[in-house]
Amino acid sequence: MGDSEEYPQHPVYDKNTIEFITVAAEYCSFIERCAGMSERVFLDKMSKLLPLLYLKMSLLPDMDTSSLSDLTTYVSERQYDAVRTQIQAIISEHDEYLEVFQEDMKYSDTPIVASISENLADVYQQLRDMIGNFQSADLAIMNDSLISCADEFRNYWGQSALNALRAIHNILYSDEDLSEEEGFGEAQDEVDFFND
Questions:
Q1: Handedness of CA 81, 137, 19, 154 (dihedral sign)
Q2: 98: phi > 0 → left, psi -120 to 50 → alpha, else beta; which?
Q3: Rounded to an integer, what distance in angstroms lies between the CA atom of residue 153 and that of residue 125?
Q4: Phi and psi dihedrals of 116, rounded to 5?
Q5: What is the CA radius of gyration of the chain?
Q6: pLDDT attached to residue 184
Q7: Which of 3, 47, 65, 76 has its CA 20 to 30 A from that of 90?
Q8: Bridge partner residues of 115 (DSSP)
Q9: What is the largest CA-CA distance in the chain?
Q10: Structure pTM?
């Protein structure tokens, strides 16, 4: 059996993998074009994308062991900061929330402040790096990028996504007025996320 006949059986071509990649790409695309969006529209979309992303990630098939491919980092520190700042401008005073699901919390007498924009930028960074590597169409790199993304999900960005969702839920369903005007917050220069 040739390589081309084996590929469709590989977990990177599984229906659940394709669905996860599709939702991850939608998340990244939305984040990259959210500048100037109203707070309500932005938070409403995040309240739908984050749980879908979490669900699709949890349904990924077991991946083959890593081939130890060299994975490329696609999101630079400048791009990460641009994403975080862009989100922070949209949600402005609602960005910070008190964090309770943090390891340091059990040793702290004071509340720990966290940031929705940082949580969402963390998720973006993991997904964008995975998608960039996945686009190589090299089976070993695609496999390893999914393994890396799944490991980071278990250890880090899965909790970031849930923490942001919890804070977003609190904002959307509180009695506070949210901006529904486009362009709320300071407009940020768009970053060319693919060619930086």
A1: negative
A2: beta
A3: 12
A4: -60, -45
A5: 18
A6: 42
A7: 76
A8: 96
A9: 62
A10: 0.84
Scored b (16 or more CB within 10 A) or e, 41-65 reads bbbebbbebbeebbebbeebeebee
Alpha helices, DSSP H only, in 76-115?
A: 77-91
Beta-bridge mates of residue 114: 97
Any idea what DSSP says for residue 1? -
Coil, strand or helix at 36: coil
Q: What is the dihedral of CA 30, 36, 40, 43, to 10 degrees?
A: 30
DSSP 16: H
Round to whole Å and give the CA distance between 196 and 17. 27
| pLDDT per residue as tens, the chain (196 positions) | 445 455 578 899 999 999 999 999 999 999 999 999 999 999 999 999 999 999 999 999 988 777 878 899 999 999 999 999 999 999 999 999 987 655 555 566 677 888 999 999 999 999 999 999 999 999 999 999 999 999 999 999 999 999 999 999 999 998 777 666 555 444 444 545 544 4
CA atoms within 13 A on the CB side of 193: 23
